[in-house]
Amino acid sequence: MKISKELLAQMEEDDKAELEELTPNEVASYEEMESYFNDSLGRFKASQIIIGKVIAISNGLATIDVGFKSEGLVSLSEFPGNGKDLLVDDEVEVFLEKVEDNHGNVVLSKEKALKIKIWDDLVKTYEADEIIQGVVVAKAKGGLTVDIGLKAFLPGSQIDLRPIRNLEKLISEKFDMKIIKMNKKRGNIVLSRRILLEEQRKQLREGTLGKMSEGNLIEGIVKNITEYGVFIDLGGIDGLLHITDMSWGRVNHPSEMFSIGDKVTVMVLKYDKEKERVSLGLKQTSSDPWVDVDTKYPVSTQIKGRVVSITDYGVFVELEKGIEGLVHISEMSWSRHVKHPSKIVSIEDQVEAIVLTLDKDKKRISLGMKQIEPNPWEKIEDKYPIGSEVDGTVRNLTDFGAFVELEDGVDGLIHISDLSWKKIKHPSEILKKKDKISSAVLSIDKENCRISLGVKQLQPDPWEGIAANYPIGTEVSGKIIKVTGFGAFAEFGDGLEGLIHVSQLSSEKITDPESAVKLDDEIKAKVIKVDTTNKKIALSIKAFEENLDISQIEKEQVDLEGFKEDTEE
Length: 569
Description:
CATH 2.40.50.140, 6 domains, 5-stranded antiparallel sheet, 9 helices, 30 strands, 37% strand, disordered N terminus, disordered C terminus
């Protein structure tokens, strides 16, 4: 029954009039009802949880009798499971929001009653420092939103022992936590998972430290991977497994062997109690393959292996896990022009080689690949006898000559002085790379793998008959090819050069050669001296202009005794 304030006021006036007409027994009964009504008003205060009874359920509402003169209505959606299991006569806890609203109705809330009860339970948990479970429901600014019956905040710094970058992956995860702060006025609850992890880590640490002796085997979990090694959680304390202690074999990067979360059994190599640093080893849990390497791979043994590394100076070949040998670039091929090892082999290639040297103490093995093939220099003298004519390809040009490849692994050098009977400044005047060329074998140095070749030796020496072909007084025509401070050089005949001293450049007396001749000038001169030993010829424009005969030239020769015949470049 619902009674408004206006109706109550009217009832009070009416009651006074009616009381005057009632019998004594009727008055006593009325006063008893009035007393019960007033007691109900006194017993109920707003903003508290009270117990009521469900007296009716209809149209999505539950009518609750709380012992007041009016009932309250509560939506079924506020009950667990939307009130599906709610029955008439069930006693329920509800929150009394108002004793009476403007219409004289009591205002109740099941949802607020639940929240208040949960809050009170959480306060008890907080005060007792107990663990509570929660489910991550969303990512929030600076952390996560967690459902613990009520929405609570888990700061990023309190999620784990180390910062977690991707918080999204934790949504829907269930964790044990502790409440570290509550504010009823604001309805805020702050959680921490890190506190529990630190407590667990402390307990684990105490147990781990008892096993921390050098040489002991200990189990751990990979928690971080770097370029130089992996950090392993041993239980309350971390240890470093350096890349050099992972395997007896080559490890280019720790990620080749480990992933985060891997379980691994390692050996304690070193433990610094003061700094709490632990050095770990994995390869030490197995025997060192170098122990009997000298019996497995003695010098001169032919082996097969896998190329695991390529450098500028050679390649490393894995003979077995933990044992590698170096093939120096000079031992890869008999050919001298291997620019880089990668031109011959690639990573993962299977190659054959010979053990050249073995240093067990330093754990070094030198290998040779070229030794698998016959050495072309072994019978070089039989194949290329001195004086024989050979064919080859120009491989390289230098200031001092040209290198010619006769066959793979056999190169010969043609010195610039052996390229032509004619004087040249650079081999490129005659040759270029990849030219096919014939030459004569001049000398062989088998020990140092060297062959000297000559091109001009295949042609007659023009100086052999020079004295007969160009006697003193012979007139020649030529071209100035160089002018110096002491005279000029002229080319004549079949590539011969003659020196015209400044005193012989003109019948007139001159001091500056450039005033008499210039480059490419065509000249006529007479031979005034031939030195077949030093292969030099002296010419004279003056003798030609004055048409001197042999006797006059020989007389002039007296004046040339101070003339430097060796004044070439």
